[in-house]
Write a structure and sequence with these properties.
The complex is a heterodimer of chains A (about 190) and B (about 375). Chain A is mainly α and about 190 residues long. Chain A is built from 8 helices and no strands. The radius of gyration of chain B is 24 Å and the shape is flat. Chain B starts with a strand and ends in a 9-residue tail after the last helix. The chains are: A mainly alpha (about 190), B alpha+beta (about 375). At the A-B interface, α1 and α5 of A face α8 of B.
Amino acid sequence: MDLTTLLIFGVPVAVIYFIYAGIIKKRNKAKEALSGVDVQLKKRSNLIPNILKIAKKFMEHEKDLMSEIVALREQADQSYDKGDTSAIAQHLAVSEQLAGKMSGFMVKVEAYPDLKSDTSMLQAQKTYNEVEEQIAAARRFYNSAVNDLNNAVQIFPGSVIAGMINISEMPFYEADEASKAPVDASEFL
Amino acid sequence: MSIRLDMNDLMRVRSLVPDVGTFSDTLRQYKELLRGGAPLPYQGEVAFRDIEGAEKPFAPHYEQHIKPLVQEFEERRVGALIKVRSLSFKVLPIACLALLGVIAGIIGLGLELMHAGILSLFIIVGAGGIISIPVTKYKSNVKGIIFPKIFSFFGDFTYDQKGLGSVRSLKSSGIIPSYDRESTEDYVRGEYEGVSIELTEAHLEDKHRDSKGRTSYSTVFKGIFVRLSMHKNFKGKTIIKRDSGGIGNWLTDKTNALENVKLEDPVFEKQFEVYSSDQIEARYLLTTSFMERLLKLSSTFGDDEIAGINIPKSFRERRGLQASFYDDKLLIMIPTQKDRFEPASIFIPATFEAEINIVLGEMNQIFQIVHMLKLNQDIGL
């Protein structure tokens, strides 16, 4: 095999290999980022029962909201297929709905002065805020990794190679529609 | 009359720092001293800056801790100037004779001009060094005795003119450049609004050897290191370096044990490169609002007016602010050619008004870092 033949066949094979390796790396990075999100979501999930337990005796009128939170928490805790993009999207959407409900719940706590000044509640709120910050950071890493992956699988020739190895785009972890809407504080007070 | 500083306008701080004596001022006053002019005691009124938001003015602190030392230091200052004059009358004629000898050597013995130049320089520097011994001693006493008393105004702040000791203790931050020789001075430590502050001035140099085996040194960093406590808990390391361009960043990526972190803010990304041991932790620390504050800090402290010298823009961009989150602390490296926390000219009476205003002005800038980065507020951003 002479050098010309080697170049004609070798260069395209090398290019295809590097694109393939790049897509796999980006997919793995996105999965790593998704695991990071899940670790933080689990922290929040573990915290919610404590918060609800502290609030229960003060917030008798908010039983419906608390039930909704419990139901959403159970949904968010369910295992899902990390290879299925629609399952990921569903999991992230439920987690975001839970965040929205918890945010509304925390605003309602303000209307109960005894609960607001309770030391256990204050500590729980502080920890919750800390976990929310960690979730926000994990979400930014996940979205950045997903952006890289989606660019790689959408742009030619990556799109062709990704199609051949059955790697598709992953969903972004976006804020839910409810949290994008302007907040009407009077609803919570 | 005291001057109130605007916390949000660092540009003004520099212009308010009193003139502590330019070279030409010092030379003029030195000539006056040699002509027999007596150092006059201060006739005016002592005035201090106020730190915005400070609960107490400086005047009572001055009355209690510094004023009792003024008489003693004024005597030391006058004594030092008298010694300078006396040494000048002895050393200057000898130095002049030696310089005349060098000229004679050039004319009579065919001394090479380069050798003559080195010899002349040696004579001038030597003479200057001997004459300025009393000044150095006086200034060292001011830094050793008066400066700690000025710093005690800020609470439990301590000051040591010797500096941190070695910058090697900061090496694990990952932003200290490699160097062969170091010198540190002015180590300040204390707590401000719940934030622990440590700062030191440092000069790091690289050693070079030319083909003839001659050794020379070049500056790799000159400025201050500020270490601040954070409200956030973190375990890993995240460093913020100046963007060094495509090839530079690629090389850093390949040689760095930390992973490159791509952040959302395009302006921040253009100026800085972030590396971290934990992608999520890096984003936890560098929130979008914190990135914005860091950019503001960088533009403020990268300003030549603030740094006190006219640094070319390209140099500032290369040598600008860098930071590292490690060991529960934030370390900021601010390059500046200006010597901070220096005593005023010996020709200024020992009321320490200038020194106090310098320290208050310098510390105000450090406190502004805390305010700009909102490290004193546990707001989670």
